[in-house]
Amino acid sequence: MRTLRSKPSGMRSRAMIEESLKTYEPALQSDPGASLIAILRRRWVVILLCAIVFPAAAFLWSSQQEKVYSAQSSVLLNQASLANSLTDTPDPSLRVDRDRQAKTQIEIAKIPEIGERTLKKLNIADLTQEQLADATTITAETGSDVLIIEVQDGDPRRAIALAATYAHQYTGMRARIDTRALATTLAEVRERLDGKHLGSDLRDSLKSKEATLSTLQTLQTRNSQVIRPAVTATQIEPTPARDAGLALILGLIVGCALALAIDARDRRIRGASQLAAAWNLPLLGRVPPIRSGQAGAIAMIADPDGDEADAYRFVVSSIEAAASDRPRTLLVVSASDREGRSRTAANLAVAFARAGEHVLAIDLDFSGTGMSDFFAATGRPGASDFATDAVGWSDAAVQVAIAADPSMNGNSGIAAGLGIGTLTVLTSGTMPASPSDFVGSASVRGLIEGVSKTFDRVVIDAPGLLGASDAALISHSVDAVVVVADVKQLSEEAVFECDRILDRVPAPKVGLLSTEDATARKILKRPARSAGRAPGRDQPVHVGGTGY
User: Fold this and answer.
1) Model pTM above 0.85
2) Cβ neighbourhood burial of 211 (10 Å; 0-12, 13-18, 19+)
């Protein structure tokens, strides 16, 4: 058995794996902002959906609301008393705080009697005094003696009338309050003047007081006056554009929060590097997503100059670099059957052959999803038939014509100058009664041992680790194991279980190959090379002769 630089023996606890998953990305650990941005970029669809739905819903809802109009009247408050100035008497109001006086006038303007008088003046019967009070806002302009009376209503003309009339009713109420004491005193003076037994001196004195009080009463009525009655009304509701803008902000906040919540509950692994750290395996390489129209093709044959083919060449070099001695028999495994394992096995076999090696590709996946489909070699005798001596080698094996790959010459551990390699495919063959018992039998062990002495490289495809025990049984007979994973397909539970199984696999693990990895296309991006190899699918032909 060859010696490989692989993960140490002994099972690691789940806590150790979780720690690897949490702490692998040092850049994100040192910069929480980068981690947050990465999550938001990963969940951009959720954020975009909220950013579209929230404003659209707010706009539609706002557009269907009843219109509301606002009209304003301005009233000037005379803080200084003209009466006190005329009579040269002290004005106590000058010693009162202006803000306090403004608040006092605001409370006076809210007296229910003013609203009742306003509605009666306009002859409005479908609006109560309480409703008018709710629709009326009274404020004082900062740093001035101006009172603002604002009334909101669904009818712009009625809003104007209400605001203007309310202001006039307030000034009338203010005049009655300010002249109430003078009116009482004046009434008393006039009552005494009506008396019959008044001396001439007293009557003259009362006449003088009557004139003075009458003048003071007239002056006091001018302590407030309407300086700008309502003449126009402005629509203040609904505001679809503003509501949509606010909803957009809310949608972005909710979208980000929802993205973080979803990401916290999402138990999938975030990247190949993180998965390699969790399994304590070196990352052999990344294979880019399959291009449209090439789902059933082998990249190393159909598009040898493409990104995917280059990725497999890099993996071949990585496999050789990971071993102190070149592994002759390689088992390709994955957690499930949907991660590109069979495609990887087929491409690695072709890559080794193009590098000048004599390669045997064995399909031991009896589920019907193995690499035989990629070589158009299904429905014929194969490994199960040959291992049980049901057919001879010439009937079981299929040979694929392989052209040399100058870019790999001497780079895969093969001495330069060996020329064109060969590729032989051994399909799974007839389904055994128990596939697990068959792959763990002495017949399969003998088959692998025998072909490893004849071929430079043997690449074996087996079912997923989580679906059957086949791969673990086959691993007893090989030199090394290559683990294939599609990060998008794996949950944390699958990672933990697969790590447990890999710890019990006796063969050394060479490393991890990430499939369907979008990062690979960026890594492998390079100028197009001149056509040196014509793309095309090689047709399988039977191997002549007997034995292997």
Assistant:
1) no
2) exposed
